[in-house]
Write a structure and sequence with these properties.
The complex is a heterodimer of chains A (250) and B (747).
Chain A: H1 2-15, E1 29-37, H2 39-49, E2 57-67, E3 70-84, E4 103-105, E5 109-124, E6 133-148, E7 153-156, E8 160-161, E9 164-165, E10 169-171, E11 173-174, E12 178-193, E13 197-208, E14 216-219, E15 225-228, H3 230-239, E16 240-249
Antiparallel strand pairs in A: 1-2, 1-16, 2-3, 3-5, 4-7, 5-6, 6-12, 7-10, 8-9, 11-14, 12-13, 13-16, 14-15
Chain B: H1 2-16, H2 34-37, H3 40-53, H4 65-87, E1 92-93, H5 97-109, H6 114-119, E2 121-125, E3 132-134, E4 139-143, H7 144-149, H8 153-168, H9 171-183, H10 187-190, H11 194-220, H12 230-239, E5 260-261, H13 290-302, H14 316-336, H15 340-351, H16 358-376, H17 394-403, H18 406-423, H19 428-443, E6 463-464, H20 468-472, H21 476-490, H22 505-526, H23 537-540, E7 542-543, E8 550-563, E9 569-570, H24 572-592, E10 596-600, H25 610-628, H26 630-633, H27 648-655, E11 659-670, H28 676-684, H29 689-697, E12 700-711, E13 716-725, H30 731-745
Parallel strand pairs in B: 2-4, 5-6, 8-10, 8-11
Antiparallel strand pairs in B: 1-2, 3-4, 7-13, 8-9, 11-12, 12-13
The chains are: A mainly beta (250), B alpha/beta (747).
């Protein structure tokens, strides 16, 4: 219900024209598919697992010119990403309340899926007329991320007590869906081919506005908490994006 | 029955005869030639193909056949597109009886060379310059300035023969190849200095000129029955071509009445001598100096055993008629070129033989109007050459107008234009100029309409403004009397004398109205409402509060240019392609936006659309003139009424609109210039260096776009939509901009 209301609100904003802009030869609407990909995502995965994956997001966007140099867009996005964790210890922050050494040996695949709905104002700068040319986009996205297909995490917990080495444990991740709001700034250039098709490319920066994301945490029956600071990683992986987009102008 | 037939014949004859009293500038007639209608690219492909089968061009430079062929092709490309621009510039006249006459001379000169004759076509060029030139396509342009100055047909025939010789020897193309070889210097030339290279090029060019003189005479002119001795006189025409077509003393009587006379100091006592030098230094000229050319031709002419020849062969009457037309065209051309003093003097010269000629009086009125407008805004030098630079009798004109005051010139303009309107009450254009000049009279002075009231005028007495030297020589009593008059003048009363012969109730009402307008403008300027400085493109964009749903759009100008690496120069095909695309889209967009637009595009015309072509010419001339008077465009309330507005009323009726739009797009690709501070920052933040380097390697693209709508009735801009974007001139860019501009029209 919450999602539906947000989507309806965003669409209402977009459809509500404030004036009669020229658009591109009278065409003021663009429906497009956008692929955002993150080259830096590779680095993180690589650091953890030496696995090459791209942090890609698929979006459907609807844009409408509301003034000659302004357009309003609503974006529906989804992403599915995985981080393979195996072989090498991850850089995991450990909250250790007790005096013992811990080695975490994660393995398997983290897979998290996200849905985003956002609204965005695009300002076509440098003499361009919306929806063509160079633009700066400012917007907000409401994100919801869930975690699935999480394999088990192997944690070797070696602690000593009276010279005795204790056992290692397997833990399961407790991962609730998280929601958070991001503000995004975008810069891109849109071209129109054959008066019908659009091709768009650019870069995007996201900033997490409300930090309500939950950290992954792993609960050990022995009441020892290991906090895997996934928040930080997610922030980084979603901070910069390059994107390309194909659309239809009408 | 016979009587009616004769009457009909007379009527037809009368209609065809030129009415010099109500002279109208010459226009194109008959059918539009293929040269004008065909697309430049089409012409290029056909010419390029035929050129390859032609015999090889003789060039001075030592280059390989392959390179020469490449340079020739390059020339054909550039020349075809540029000549095409000239052909549709509105400055050429085709199918006019004057062209027919020139063609007849060419027919006669080449009656033994029919094949060569077939390749040539002749057009009259509406230019005041004494000039003729030929192109590689076989088009020969003869300027009206030349026709106005030559003394007889034989002289004109020699010039034509000279140009035919240029075409025959393919000088225009060989000259280009030589120049390119020098510019991209190879072998020995590479080591020579720039000046040496320049001299080398000029020498090649001079050789061509001498050869054209020689071939024109020995292979073409000599075979005719024209008077050989006229060849030498052609060089006199060229030598004194910078002077008007006649040298007659200028007298200010024309502007004086029994109430008005000008002080002697307004006239030069001694005029500068005509100092045309025959033996000038021609080392940096493409043509040999006149002395050399004359000497060379003199020997050739004198070597002729028989001295025979006619000054006229085709027709003396036609020559005189067309020379008169050419001379009548000159004031019109000079006004269009903002050479008002020359226009006035030329009209003055012609008026001596035809004192009541309405057209010439109009030209004088327009010139006075132009001079006064420029004097008012302090830009007089743009409208009248500095008298010290002028030679001959014309110098007196420039000196006189330099000396008369702003007020006097305004009064002269108002009075002259008023007289024209009194002679011809239906002359709305002169009335318009007069009213505008009248507003200026009050705008640039503190006088009131009552100061010019005839009730206080002493119409029986002449008011002579005395120079200081003259004043000193007066007796004590004469000085007192003169001072009284001056004081009366200072109180404004004496100015009534200036309008004594034109003052009536209508004039009084017009003065009152003009005064109100001037006061309004003064008030607005005081409030800084109307005066707008438009320094940048962004500030430049504006639209008056008028809804425009009907307009004429003149053929868009689209130019794609490159100054990047080896791509220097215009991209002719791309420019034409974009232009054609734009032309194809405009009607669609207009119908979508409910705008009735008449697009005047030459390439879309049919052979029979000569009237539309002439409309295009009038509009082009109007635009050229409008932009020439750019000084006035910055002030909204100080419009300059363009002379070509005179010819707009018919167009307004025909197209049922007073709005005309012009679209221009220019794009440039050039090497990117990066600010030093950006480089410094990038060095400091060294990981960004690869990005900066990549950025610097990519050339910068700029597109400049302008859409302007003019109210031709008021001679003012109604809308400017200008944009500069950092992108190449692509179809989507241009379409987007033009649609947006059209969309703004009816809002």
């Amino acid at each position: 219900m919450k999602y539906t209301a947000t989507i309806v609100l965003c669409l209402a904003c977009v459809f509500c024209s404030f004036s009669q802009p020229s658009g591109y030869i009278g065409k003021t609407r663009v429906a497009s598919y956008r692929l955002s990909f993150l080259p830096t995502g590779y680095g993180l995965n690589h650091r953890i697992s030496k696995l090459i994956t791209f942090n890609s997001t698929h979006s459907l966007s609807f844009e409408k010119a509301i003034k000659n140099n302004l357009s309003l867009a609503v974006n529906l996005s989804a992403f599915s990403n995985k981080i393979c964790t195996s072989h090498e210890p991850a850089n995991i922050h450990v909250i250790a309340n007790y005096d013992y050494a811990t080695t975490i040996q994660p393995w398997g695949v983290f897979k998290y899926r996200g849905k985003m709905v956002g609204v965005e104002l695009k300002s076509y700068v440098g003499g361009w007329i919306a929806p063509l040319g160079i633009y700066l986009g400012y917007g907000f996205s409401w994100n919801r991320i869930s975690f699935k297909d999480v394999d088990k995490l192997e944690i070797t917990d070696n602690y000593y007590s009276d010279g005795i080495s204790y056992l290692q444990y397997d833990y399961e991740i407790v991962a609730d869906p998280v929601s958070y709001l991001t503000g995004n700034i975008k810069m891109g250039k849109k071209s129109i081919i054959s008066d019908k098709y659009t091709f768009d490319y650019g870069i995007e920066v996201n900033l997490v506005l409300n930090n309500q994301m939950k950290d992954y945490y792993y609960e050990k029956p022995g009441k020892v908490y290991f906090v895997y600071n996934e928040t930080k990683e997610r922030r980084i992986t979603k901070l910069y994006n390059a994107f390309i987009s194909f659309g239809y102008v009408f | 029955m016979v009587r009616y037939f004769i009457l009909a014949l007379l009527l037809v004859f009368k209609l065809q005869a030129q009415d010099f009293n109500n002279y109208t500038p010459i226009v194109c007639e008959g059918k539009i030639p293929e040269d004008v209608l065909k697309l430049s690219s089409e012409k290029y492909f056909s010419q390029s193909a035929s050129w390859k089968t032609d015999e090889k061009v003789q060039v001075n430079a030592d280059i390989s056949e392959k390179k020469q062929s490449k340079l020739e092709d390059d020339f054909i490309l550039k020349s075809t597109f540029n000549i095409d621009r000239l052909l549709k510039s509105g400055k050429i006249v085709f199918e006019h009886p004057m062209c027919t006459y020139i063609n007849k001379i060419a027919d006669y000169l080449l009656e033994n060379e029919p094949e060569l004759r077939k390749k040539l076509s002749f057009y009259v060029l509406k230019s005041s310059f004494v000039n003729a030139f030929s192109t590689h396509q076989g088009i020969i342009f003869i300027s009206l300035g030349l026709i106005a100055q030559v003394e007889n047909e034989a002289q004109l025939a020699f010039v034509i023969a000279h140009e035919i010789a240029h075409y025959k020897k393919k000088h225009v193309i060989s000259s280009y190849v030589d120049k390119q070889v020098i510019v991209h210097s190879s072998n020995d030339i590479r080591n020579s200095s720039f000046l040496d290279k320049l001299h080398l090029y000029f020498n090649y060019s001079k050789e061509n000129e001498s050869e054209a003189d020689s071939i024109g005479f020995n292979e073409i002119f000599i075979k005719s029955a024209y008077d050989f001795s006229q060849v030498n006189k052609v060089f006199d025409v060229l030598l004194y071509s910078y002077l008007p077509f006649d040298e007659i003393k200028f007298n200010t009587d024309l502007f004086e009445t029994k109430q008005i006379s000008f002080p002697e100091e307004y006239l030069l006592k001694e005029l500068s001598e005509i100092a045309a030098v025959e033996d000038y230094d021609d080392s940096e000229s493409t043509h040999p100096n006149i002395k050399k050319r004359r000497a060379s031709m003199y020997n050739q002419v004198n070597s002729m055993k028989e001295t025979r020849g006619e000054k006229f062969i085709v027709s003396e009457d036609d020559f005189n008629k067309f020379r008169k037309i050419a001379r009548f065209e000159l004031p019109h051309i000079y006004i269009n070129e903002r050479k008002f003093s020359r226009a006035l003097y030329t009209s003055y010269l012609l008026l001596r033989n035809d004192p009541q000629n309405a057209y010439l009086k109009n030209c004088i009125g327009t010139s006075l109007y132009g001079l006064s407008k420029y004097k008012n805004i302090g830009e007089f030098a743009n409208a009248c050459r500095v008298f010290s630079e002028v030679e001959g009798e014309e110098q007196q004109v420039n000196y006189f107008f330099d000396k008369v005051t702003k007020m006097e010139l305004n009064i002269m303009s108002v009075r002259w234009l008023k007289k024209i309107t009194m002679d011809n009450p239906s002359d709305e254009f002169s009335k318009k100029m007069m009213k505008n000049s009248m507003v200026d009279l009050f705008l640039y002075s503190e006088y009131l309409p009552s100061d010019f009231d005839r009730a206080s005028a002493d119409t029986s007495e002449s008011m002579v403004l005395l120079a200081d030297s003259v004043y000193e020589k007066l007796s004590k009593y004469e000085k007192i009397e003169y001072k009284k008059k001056i004081n009366a003048k200072a109180s404004g009363k004496s100015y009534s004398n200036y309008f004594a012969d034109v003052y009536d109730d209508t004039f009084k009402a017009e003065m009152d109205e003009a005064f109100k307008d001037a006061e309004k403008i003064k008030e607005e300027e005081k409030n800084n409402k109307s005066y707008s400085k438009r320094n940048s493109w962004r500030q430049f964009n504006f639209k008056r509060k008028v809804k425009i749903d009907k307009l004429v759009i003149i053929e868009p100008t689209v130019i794609q240019y490159r100054t990047y690496k080896d791509e220097v120069g215009e991209r002719y095909f791309a420019s034409e392609e974009r232009q054609r695309d734009l032309i194809a889209q405009i009607p669609t967009y207009c119908s979508k936006l409910n705008i009735q637009a008449n697009l005047l595009d030459i390439k879309s015309f049919k052979e029979s659309d000569v009237k539309s072509f002439n409309d295009y010419v009038i509009l082009s001339s109007w635009f050229s003139e409008f932009f020439l008077h750019d000084e006035f465009n910055e002030k909204e309330n100080n419009n300059y009424i363009c002379y070509n507005t005179k010819f707009m009323s018919e167009l307004q009726k025909k197209y049922d609109t007073k709005y005309v739009a012009w679209v221009g797009a220019f794009s440039e690709r050039r090497k990117r210039e990066v600010d030093q501070s950006v480089v410094s920052c990038s060095i400091l933040l060294f990981p960004t260096l690869p990005i900066l380097m990549t950025y610097m390697m990519i050339p910068a693209n700029f597109t400049y776009y302008v859409f302007m709508v003019f109210d031709v009735e008021k001679s003012e801009i109604c809308m400017i939509d200008a944009r500069v974007v950092k992108a190449d001139l692509k179809t989507d860019v241009l379409r987007s901009f033009i649609y947006d501009s059209l969309n703004k029209l009816n809002k």
